[in-house]
Design brief:
Elements (H helix, E strand, L loop, with lengths): L1 H14 L2 H18 L10 H13 L3 H4 L5 H19 L11 H13 L5 H10 L6 H7 L12 H8 L3 E10 L5 E9 L4 E8 L4 H11 L8 E4 L7 H9 L3 E4 L9 H13 L9 H17 L21 E7 L4 E7 L2
Parallel strand pairs: 1-4, 4-5
Antiparallel strand pairs: 1-2, 2-3, 6-7
Helix pairs in contact: 3-5, 7-8, 10-11
Amino acid sequence: MRWIGLALRILIDVLRPHSALVAENLLLRHQLAVLRPKVKRPLIDFADRLFWVLVSRLWDRWRDVLVLVEPDTVIRWHRSGFRSYWRRKSRRPPGRPPVSTEIRALVRQMSLENPLWGAPRIHGEILKLGISVSESTVAKYMVRRGDPRRSQTWRTFLRNHARELVSIDFFTVPTARFATLYVFLVLAHDRRRIVHLRVTAEPSSAWVSQQMIEAFPWETTPRFLIRDRDSIYSPAFQSRVDGMGIDDHPKAPRSPWQNPYVERLIGSIRRDLLDHVIVFNASHLERLLRAYLDYYHRSRNHLALGKDPPEHRAAERFGKIVALPQLGGLHHRYTRLAA
């Protein structure tokens, strides 16, 4: 009887179509590949499950060659994948819609730049920019600070007082005859303007006091004065400054960084002009420095002023570009000629 069953099986295989034999062979090879590792229970990964789900959809006789698992298991895999697919497809993010990175950065920027503003004020400013966002969202992304009354930065404090601050200092210039000339500077901090500049060969306390009167006539005196502790600033000088209503603030000894603006100005004058010329006498030096003042105030850009001169220089967008030599050609100003 066993030989009869085997003969019938061979006869059926011979009469079956070639495509069916190829499919059965492929499926049996796949199951052998899964069963090849020597483990008690074969490991069936996601790719194996997907393979049999696809086979069950494409071939009607897939149950005849399946010996790895039960056919119901394949059907269960298919239904589980169907549920996962539609669950993932219909999923929505919970809560409010996400806030873009640009809006979060803008809220942080406004809260940092305006420490006295609360969420309602920042929210109103954002609405004026055409951005639709709730006030609670603004409050969520604001930078948390301490007491607003103590949150002012030193930069803001100094900027608010810059118009009331001036610095004074001397620097020396050697002449062609090996003499020494002294240059006295008065610098206003608000726009880095050189308020006063004089040259002398014999500075004295009375001379410096007179320069302060010439620098600030009538009701133009600043509120604070920063200087070093040179002996030329005698009690007579201090009395004159006090009489003008100026608070005198000498810096600490050997601390040039406490008067940085005027120190930087002196370095700029040397690098831009004096390091490249030979001074003959006081009148020659004054002419050079006055030409430098015109270049400094009207043409030379300053990093601290947004690359603008102390006297605002408007951008020119039309016309041919020409170069105008200044300080004898040491520097140039570039401008446009009207067409």
